[in-house]
DNA sequence: CTCGATCGTTCGACTTGACGAACACTCTAC
DNA sequence: GTAGAGTGTTCGTCAAGTCGAACGATCGAG
């Protein structure tokens, strides 16, 4: 069972209101900053509706939180995720598996990923929010990691950090390549 | 040309097509699985439009990728620490080596460690600052990790998180045990 | 108490995204 | 050659999301 639930409108509604109150802004002020009608925001916080991508993006900018915060539910403080566990939230393909281990809480803003990759098509990523920094520790194998313009070849045990707000890539060179990735956003 | 934080419609368009072709499905088939019109999907992959939350969610399910992947693309390099490099700062003992990879900036408060351990005396840690949380991803071997009162046995690939403000332990069970540890303080 | 400002909600009008059929195209089989 | 099944695209229609204004509620100053 992957995702039994529907669209996380309820979760987003809660996150919107929580983040807005955290920075102490009124509904009208956030709507103004986001460039949307406050009636729209009012409805969203009430859990009614089906916001468009632009609306959500504008709100994440106005609230000054990563977009993922609005869609990734918070996680418990203590938990165990087995290597063989069904994916709580993972991105899979034939030669690349990225499992989200720990989503960033509101205050700290960082995600931890376990990556398992096979040689094949490189995993390219578009720029993230400005201020994002990513850290990779290769557990096994060999990979080409870093900005698309200047990637670095790393082997088991190596560590590499790079800005997340430029296009970047993760390409396994050897079979059975694994890594731990920490993506953090500095406010 | 690079917008500071424009809606990632273009990125989503690329991600949609990339993921769809990765699993080798036709546009019509994905649309059918997602329960949306193929014309809608066609437009989205072309980069035109502004999809609603429900539409995106349905597509992430149909493509069997996490929702966050479509809206929050993964990661990119600035600093490289090779496995054989002499660590600038490390804590060593006969059967335990912890290398500091990335010290926590003032704002974010988190440290990333690479741990190499051998079976022997458990590595016990006294409580850190209140609000500290530690995350461990085991790269290789087998270890007993977590609160001293209730440790968890983990193997390669496993993830475990536990409060850092209580006594905790890291004990290698197999030779050649390695791990990545992220220690963070929540304000 | 009254006025004013700000809060969040509700309402009708407009804009726009989603739908589904028809379309042009490619490839294969007969 | 033609017929068929597959691909992805375009277009008119309808439903739904968004907008802006008006609404009642709340709080503080005079």
From TrEMBL, chains A, B:
GO CC aspect terms: cytosol
PROSITE patterns referenced in this protein's UniProt entry, alphabetically: HTH_CROC1
InterPro entries reported in the protein's UniProt record: Cro/C1-type_HTH, Lambda_DNA-bd_dom_sf, RmlC-like_jellyroll, RmlC_Cupin_sf, TransReg_Diox_bact_type
Keywords for the protein's UniProt record, in alphabetical order: DNA-binding
Domain named HTH cro/C1-type: residues: 16-70
Pfam families per the UniProt record, alphabetical: HTH_3
Annotated GO MF terms: DNA binding; DNA-binding transcription factor activity
Keyword RNA-binding carried by entry: no
Highest taxon in the source lineage: Bacteria
The name this protein goes by in its record: XRE family transcriptional regulator
Source species: Labedella endophytica
């Amino acid at each position: 069972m992957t995702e039994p639930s529907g669209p996380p409108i309820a979760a987003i509604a809660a996150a919107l209101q929580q983040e807005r109150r955290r920075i102490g802004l009124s509904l009208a002020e956030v709507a103004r900053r986001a460039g949307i009608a406050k009636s729209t925001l009012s409805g969203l916080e009430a859990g009614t509706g089906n916001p468009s991508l632009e609306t959500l993006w504008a709100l994440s900018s106005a609230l000054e939180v990563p977009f993922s915060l609005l869609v990734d539910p918070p996680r418990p403080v203590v938990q165990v995720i087995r290597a063989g566990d069904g994916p709580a939230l993972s991105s899979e393909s034939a030669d690349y598996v990225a499992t989200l281990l720990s989503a960033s809480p509101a205050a700290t803003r960082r995600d931890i990923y376990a990556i398992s990759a096979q040689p094949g098509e490189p995993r390219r990523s578009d720029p993230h929010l400005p201020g994002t920094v990513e850290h990779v520790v290769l557990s096994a194998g060999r990979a080409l990691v870093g900005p698309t313009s200047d990637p670095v070849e790393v082997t088991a045990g190596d560590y590499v950090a790079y800005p997340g707000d430029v296009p970047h890539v993760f390409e396994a060179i050897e079979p059975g390549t694994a890594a731990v990735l920490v993506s953090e956003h500095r406010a």
